[in-house]
Q: What sequence folds into this?
């Protein structure tokens, strides 16, 4: 099991935002984390990447929890935040070097990989610039490059499509697919449901800090709609139901 | 909307008093009184020794007056979000900026009166054409010119062609006006300024129907506030200082001289070279310290000063230890904090070696070799204590608090 979240209760202060969340991601699986604004998607992600500590419950990546071995736990994660987070004092090249240093990657192979990715995202002539001054889409691409040069087993991608041009969206999906083939797992939070419908193997729908439902598209169709329902239809129906409760 | 400026102005005053409290702490006020008193004393002696009609006085007065005219810019307290949130209110911003102009003019006038007061003894002693009406006309001329300069900033809010107008109205016209005043006729100069003033006021009226150049206005206001915060930052921690960065490619080759073996060392040295705040602090204090040591040849004072400046630099660099903590990736990377402190101390040490070396060199010029060697020894001992005991303590304490 690549990621195993069990009975997670957590949040920012004393009041729990997440109330007993459990789900898992298998090797080579792409799971979509969906839910309304404020449902608890980002809080869940913050717990998985270790910036928040659970009140109770456990999170394990390939059997290791953060309390077992911090470095081993974190070595397996690559994170792409919703809003690009960069060091304002580092150039693009230095961001890649920092990533190599932090994950202790092999310099030659990592750089070779970085060059391919930079070329793919048309950033290869901007190595000496400060990415903090780039446009939102380009900064997002820097985050993608830095994440995908690591040998992480679990990619956590928070709302990746906003601000990216269609070409880059396509390239990102290809990268995700390659990682899946190599056995890495991906947790992706998004509101772009038609893309999620086409690419995710499974969905975890979070509502009010709880897992409302989970399963692959056909399971969700069986449960909440009919053959022709799209993820969007199911999602809207569930959201409405929950609001009426 | 009419009250917006008032609100912003009040908020600004509250903020400024908060910081001024730190600036005018007891120690600094006493030091300031001594410095000010000393300067006035020196000034009075210097004037006594001058004779009427000394040739370089008039150009000097021109330069002082010109520089003082540039002090005090148009403070408008515009915020970045105004551009989005108050977009439909653009027209009422004309009155907002008028209020801003009024406030800025009062503040700038105080500076003009102050400079004028200080110059009166000098002018009365050395200017051949001095009399009472001359000195009063000078104040009037300064106040008119200041209004023209601020008015030009006001028009700038609405105008495309700022560079040319700024050059003419803020630099060339004041120089012409002051030159006429000093070398030709005071009355003629005031008449000239009044004509320019009339034109400026008319041009300001014409702006009512123009659109505001938001980007420019916001940038100017931000850099103005940034300068103020930078000043306060010398006395206390200013959270609003975003710490701008500059690429400084020419320093890249020097990066190799420092530790790069872990993420924190890598970040610290690049940050210190490129972050304008921290690099500015280091160079400013190192240079001021060196200059003081160069010009003072009392051996005790020189050693004390060198110690004081080393303490000041190290002390003010300590908060930089936490600079990268706000970036999530510092936590997400599979790295430990083990090397963080040693990397930080290592970099501070190397930077301070450069400063001590500078102090050593200038001290050779201003003092005898024994004093210089003692200075070198004491500075190194001080640095050793600072980096091995003081920094540890300070950082541990700050970490416990958070």
A:
């Amino acid at each position: 099991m690549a990621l195993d979240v069990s009975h997670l209760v957590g949040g920012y202060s004393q009041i729990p935002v997440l109330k007993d969340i459990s789900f898992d991601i298998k090797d080579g699986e792409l799971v979509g984390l969906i839910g309304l604004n404020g449902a608890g998607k980002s809080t869940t992600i913050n717990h998985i990447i270790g910036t928040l500590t659970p009140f109770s419950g456990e999170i394990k990546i390939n059997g290791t929890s953060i309390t077992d071995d911090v470095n081993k736990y974190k070595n397996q994660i690559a994170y792409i935040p919703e809003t690009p987070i960069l060091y304002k004092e580092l150039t693009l090249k230095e961001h890649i070097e920092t990533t190599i240093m932090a994950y202790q990657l092999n310099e030659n192979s990592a750089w070779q990989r970085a060059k391919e990715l930079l070329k793919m995202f048309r950033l290869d002539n901007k190595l000496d610039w400060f990415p903090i001054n780039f446009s939102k889409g380009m900064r997002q691409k820097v985050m993608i490059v830095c994440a995908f040069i690591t040998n992480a087993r679990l990619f956590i991608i928070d709302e990746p499509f906003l601000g990216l041009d269609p070409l880059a969206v396509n390239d990102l999906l290809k990268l995700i697919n390659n990682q899946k083939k190599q056995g890495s797992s991906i947790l992706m939070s998004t509101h772009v449901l038609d893309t999620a419908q086409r690419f995710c193997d499974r969905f975890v729908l979070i509502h009010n800090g709880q897992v409302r439902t989970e399963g692959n598209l056909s399971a969700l169709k069986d449960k909440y709609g009919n053959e022709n329902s799209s993820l969007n239809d199911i999602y809207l129906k569930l959201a409405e139901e929950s609001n009426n409760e | 909307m009419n009250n917006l400026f008032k609100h912003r102005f009040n908020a600004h005053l509250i903020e400024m008093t908060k910081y001024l409290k730190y600036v005018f702490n007891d120690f600094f006020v006493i030091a300031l009184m001594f410095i000010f008193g000393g300067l006035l004393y020196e000034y009075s002696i210097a004037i006594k020794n001058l004779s009427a009609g000394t040739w370089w006085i008039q150009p000097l007065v021109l330069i002082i007056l010109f520089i003082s005219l540039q002090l005090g810019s148009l403070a408008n307290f515009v915020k970045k979000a105004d551009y989005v949130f108050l977009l439909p209110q653009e027209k009422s911003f004309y009155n907002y900026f008028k209020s801003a102009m009024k406030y800025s003019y009062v503040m700038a006038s105080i500076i003009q009166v102050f400079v004028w007061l200080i110059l009166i003894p000098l002018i009365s002693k050395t200017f051949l054409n001095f009399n009472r009406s001359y000195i009063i006309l000078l104040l009037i001329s300064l106040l008119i010119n200041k209004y023209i300069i601020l008015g030009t900033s006001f028009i700038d809010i609405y105008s495309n062609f700022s560079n040319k107008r700024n050059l003419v109205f803020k630099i060339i016209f004041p120089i012409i006006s002051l030159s006429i005043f000093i070398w030709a006729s005071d009355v003629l100069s005031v008449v000239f300024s009044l004509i320019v003033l009339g034109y400026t006021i008319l041009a300001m009226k014409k702006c009512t129907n123009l659109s505001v150049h938001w980007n420019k206005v916001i940038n100017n206001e931000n850099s103005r506030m940034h300068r103020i915060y930078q000043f306060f930052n010398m006395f206390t921690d200013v959270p609003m200082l975003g710490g701008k960065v500059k690429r400084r490619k020419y320093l890249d080759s020097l990066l190799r001289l420092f530790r790069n073996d872990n993420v924190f060392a890598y970040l610290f040295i690049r940050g210190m070279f490129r972050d304008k705040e921290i690099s500015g602090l280091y160079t400013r204090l190192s240079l001021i310290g060196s200059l003081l040591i160069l010009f003072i040849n009392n051996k005790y004072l020189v050693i004390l000063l060198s110690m004081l400046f080393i303490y000041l630099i190290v002390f003010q660099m300590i908060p930089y230890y936490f600079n990268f903590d706000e970036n999530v990736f510092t936590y997400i990377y599979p790295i430990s904090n083990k090397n963080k402190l040693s990397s930080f101390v290592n970099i501070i040490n190397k930077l301070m070696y450069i400063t001590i070396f500078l102090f050593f060199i200038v001290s050779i010029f201003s003092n005898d070799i024994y004093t210089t060697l003692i200075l070198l020894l004491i500075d190194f001992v001080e640095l050793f204590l600072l980096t091995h005991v003081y920094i540890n303590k300070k950082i541990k304490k700050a970490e416990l608090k958070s």
Remarks:
- Residues 324 and 330 of chain B are 7 Å apart (CA to CA).
- Chain B touches chain A at residues 243, 245, 247, 249, 262-263, 266-267, 270-271, 274-275, 324, 327-329, 331-336 (CB under 8 Å).
- The mean pLDDT of chain B is 88.
- Chain B has two domains: 4-230, 249-401.
